[in-house]
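Narrative summary of target 7.
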Amino acid sequence: MMTFGDKRLHIQEVSTRDGFQIEPQFIPTDDKVALIDALSRAGLAKIEVTSFSSPRAIPALADAEQVMQRIARVPGVEYSALVPNVRGCARALQADVDEINVVMSASESHNRANLRMDCEQSLTGIREIAALARGRVHLNVSISTAFGCPFEGDIDSARVMDLIERFRQIGIKRISLCDTTGVANPAQVHRLCGKALAACPDIAFTAHFHDTRAMGLANALAALDAGIVRFDASLGGLGGCPFAPGASGNVCTEDMVHMFNAMGYKTGVDLQRLLELARSLPALVGHDVPGQVMKAGPSSRRYPLQEPQLGSGLVCEPAASVEQAPDSRVAQSSRS
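Modeled conformation, tokenized:
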């Protein structure tokens, strides 16, 4: 049962990597740096800045080194980067990241589509990355399609638990459980997160949800109820996996923070600052973004009451009925 206000929730921003990676137009480096610097001052626990992937694979993030070099780092904020292999890991270490994030799918099919290798090959690569990063930076492994795959359907929780144990044996201390295509439901989330926390209390688990089927925030609450305190989210709801059919944006950061704050949880995040940044996104990316609170305002917002003038009659007159308007089209059609 959830209890309010007795624990700190860690909100981890992924828009500048997970969000920008699929944008059709290149976001200028200056704009990326400015946004990351602004996010750094908003009280977020972690920012996934970029990806040290091949520029040919992800041209939108070809400026990874420049961005990492130019951002103004704020004490208390971790700066993370995604890496696909040992070469990317070496680049990230050279750029002085705080955390390296590696992705592997619970699904063989999605792993081949996303990483062009089978799961055993991915495990070998993760061992090599862990050996290079050990003692230098934190290492997080994100398990994609942990709740379901667009190619294979349901993923057995035993498969996910086996991967968690194998990562643990490698020495991984941080693991993200990712609903890559937004197929998870709250009951399923609660079961898997509860199993993971019970089996591996020494692992720092993160919940990563997409809002493809409008269950992202409900799933975040289920994960919280199971004991998860770290959540990925994306400003404005940007994002989506380019190798997962039907995938849409991540759970929206400001919507998640608004929900947790309204429930009495401590996030340490400045919601007003997030909303200001979210409202600037459409101009930056060139299209509307899914976030809701940025449009409606927080639940604490109040509007002035427009008092009707005395004697002016009803504010809204009732629409005329068919009986009151026999010459209307509806009446005519009923006589035909």
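Strands lie at 10-13, 46-51, 78-82, 99-105, 138-144, 174-179, 204-209, 230-233.
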